[in-house]
Amino acid sequence: MADELQVTPSLVIAGAELRERFSRSSGPGGQGVNTTDSRVELSFDVAASPSIPDHLRPRLLARLASRLVDGVLTIAASEYRSQLANRNAARERLAATLRAAAAPPPPKRRPTKPSRGAKERRLAAKHQRSETKRNRRTTTDD
User: What is the pLDDT of residues 46-55, one digit of tens each?
Assistant: First the structure.
């Protein structure tokens, strides 16, 4: 495919960097499933791509490490009967995967302590609960 893939406004992957393989898909389709190559495998070399900025490459490689084989990310799509629909689905899934991996890390959590009022309310609720349970006990008067 010659057209580019827009991942984020600042990250665009050239179409020449994407590799597509087509094969026969399993599942519904009747006799046509035996003749059409509708399954799509879309591969993208994350490790060697010139489209990925140098500051972003380590983050992508680290977050996608479990899905990469020799630095190549492969997405398979076979949920549709038509090859074109599967190509579009694979491209959308690739863009979503890269977008999630390229997202900046969340801000660090600032540890906080419960306020004095929250502590008092918690202890008051515990006291009230223990009173309720104490009142349920049967007392034996001798």
Answer: 888 888 888 8
